[in-house]
Amino acid sequence: MPTRLVLLCAGATAATRAARFADPAEPLDAGGRAKVLALDLAGAAAAHCWVSPAAAARETAALIGVAAEEAPALRDIDAGAWTGRSLESLAPAAVAAWLAAPEAGAPGGESMAAVRARVGPWLDGLGEGRVLAISHAAVLRAAIAHALDVPVAATLAIDVAPLSMVVLSRHGRWRVQELRRG
């Protein structure tokens, strides 16, 4: 039996709307909660559900009514010293350096390669059957990079909005079945 994994990006927070670096303690905002409640997950029924330990992901799972087990591998990228900050609040030279190589990560934070290094083994360790995982844009991109065996930098060209879905399947090797913008 193959594995079918639906990766759902957590709902919106004030930080996502303001283009700030995520804070794992930040819950969904009112608009994020409303959109999660309106979400149609037809076809995403799963035998097992996983969730990032971040507040927004846990709240997304609760609002869609799934009992999900926390998976540390699904936590959002660590933004280091930039956690909770907007690009406008940072030194222009630091922002320019980050924009030139965003896969390298924020100062004191985690690189996209490090995210892929923790997400890849988690993916490969999944058993057969239908799985739902609620996480974050960086994690969805890292999962795509792992599934397709492409550089994580290539996945930065994929827009992953709140409530976007990536459907992966594995029957011998991983394949991308679907990308759906939230």
TrEMBL record:
The lineage of its organism: Bacteria, Pseudomonadati, Pseudomonadota, Alphaproteobacteria, Sphingomonadales. InterPro entries: His_Pase_superF_clade-1, His_PPase_superfam. It comes from Sphingomonas taxi. Coiled coil: none annotated. This is Histidine phosphatase family protein.
